[in-house]
Amino acid sequence: MQFVPTNMLVAHSTNKRFSRYITALPTKQPTLHFPTRHTGRHIPTLALGTTLNLGNPSDIPAALPTDDDGIDNTETSYLNQPKTELVRSLWPLGMSTTTTIYAYALLLLRFGVTLARISSGGILYPQESESRDVRTLDGVWNFRLSPESDPLVGFREHWYNKELRQTGETIPMPVPASYNDITQDKAIRDHVGLVWYDRSFFVPDTWRQQGLRVWMRFGSVSYAAQVWVNGQLVMSHEIGHLPFQRDIASVLKYGSKNLVTVAVDNTLLETSIPQGQLSETYTTNNSFGYLILNYVSLFITILTFRDNGTQITQSYTFDFFNYAGIHRHVHLYTTPQVYIDDISVRTSITGNTGRSFHLFPCVKPRHIGNNSEVVGTCNEGKGQNTEENDGDEICREKTTNDIKKEMELADNRKCASVIEYNVSYNGYDQSYSSPLCFVDLLDREGKFVARDITTLAGRIEIDSPRLWWPYLMDSEPGYLYTLQVRLASPQLGTKDVYRLPVGIRTVKWNNTSLLINGRTLYLRGFGKHEDSDIRGKGLDYSLVAKDYNLIKWIGANSFRTSHYPYAEEIMDFADRQGIVVINECPSVDTV
């Protein structure tokens, strides 16, 4: 139901892997192999202006087996000792030891994204049903910074194999929330780099007995994350503001305590989304120099180098604070082995939509005495039922009762709608016949409207549907049906059930107007951030509800997500409240 621009970012994953060597280019091309152990500083010294590039991923040895889940069980040895040679290799380039290790820590976390895959299929919002169970891992987690002087220590000492409290001092950290403003510690507020979270949780043995898939899902972690469960790397993800998940059933201890550990990196580089830049400056007695590194591509330009008085600076291409942490819900949920992976829906409308006038807020809604609420309304420009006014708006006031009466009269001119849907699934045994989808359309009260039985793709036609209208364009804005999908087969019976809220509406535009259901919509609203005091960008339902109440109270009908996708829960609020959302991708000032 949201208005989403065509440049909306879609999450995706990659199966590339970190090369085990780097090659110096473009001249002498000395090769620095990770497995080689150097001592002291007697290693090849590269000339100024040398460019270092990652090797071809196809050259990686085959010694990185994965089990049936695709979960990499060899990352412990792969991520640690061999690649420490990269740190040694960069020292003669003039980088301070602290900064070199810091840069390498970024490499581990960034390129860890390629070592543990996330689910690459659909990512339906977790929902309880006859076939699904949902639990939350929200609450108070354990938290600690990775020390700037030794950011690799968590990887080197395998913090993910034990509780964080066993590694040193931790503090309680709420999830979801940004970690920046939870304490009075300036070092935590302004921290750039790695932080660590962990918590324990239980799963019932009945999930194992029923042979269920068990998914761990993060709504958003800013900006790069690696996730371990019981010491096994199960997920890596980069780009905050987007959800990611993985089936972790194979690494769980059923009927016992489990441990989840998350390493989070909020560093932003020229190749990250959104963009930033990490630079190092330093001074000596009589000279000043600097170097700028793009740590992801290992492109290094050195103008001059010293080891004295080093300072690392993170800069950004945007004008908002770099809040970081686990910002949205963490869910643990189950599906059957054969499950509904994704559902896509498209609606169309034929006939008269029953709206011969437009309602636009001109003034803040208010009450006059004990009478009905008064809202400002406008007829835009010249046209039917408007005065000739050279394009100026003629505003007048109507009570909500007047509006309802006019809408009831207009609704006598009915329309029809077609709901086209496509269902995808995973895990089906091909020895069985193709599964069927039993698709029911239910109204707002849960009453049956229509049904279709199909092999995954079909359409439902209904007469006189209730349309989804923005706030102040209908007496019941944000009307949603429910598309109930049951995946079944003759041999297995019903395997999975999912219910998707659906609004019937069309969105079009021409050279002058944005059209909802064929009628002009004038957007009045705000550009806003998810930021709030204390919580940062952490999702908080109280604040979300208050924001929507303020939007409606002031007579607005829309807002723009400056400058990143908001939480799915916020979008769900918008659907139900009849608020139009211009949903932005998080790439700010991208060249």
Automatic annotation (TrEMBL):
Annotated Pfam families: Glyco_hydro_2, Glyco_hydro_2_C, Glyco_hydro_2_N
Domain Glycoside hydrolase family 2 catalytic: 509-588
Domain Glycosyl hydrolases family 2 sugar binding: 135-336
InterPro entries, per the entry: Beta-gal/glucu_dom_sf, Galactose-bd-like_sf, GH, Glyco_hydro_2_cat, Glyco_hydro_2_CS, Glyco_hydro_2_N, Ig-like_fold, Ig-like_GH2
Keyword terms: Glycosidase, Hydrolase
Molecular function, one GO term: carbohydrate binding
GO cellular component: extracellular space
Residue span(s) of domain Glycoside hydrolase family 2 immunoglobulin-like beta-sandwich: 452-505
Biological processes per GO annotation: carbohydrate metabolic process; glucuronoside catabolic process
Family: Belongs to the glycosyl hydrolase 2 family.
Protein name: Beta-glucuronidase
Organism expressing this protein natively: Timema cristinae (Walking stick)
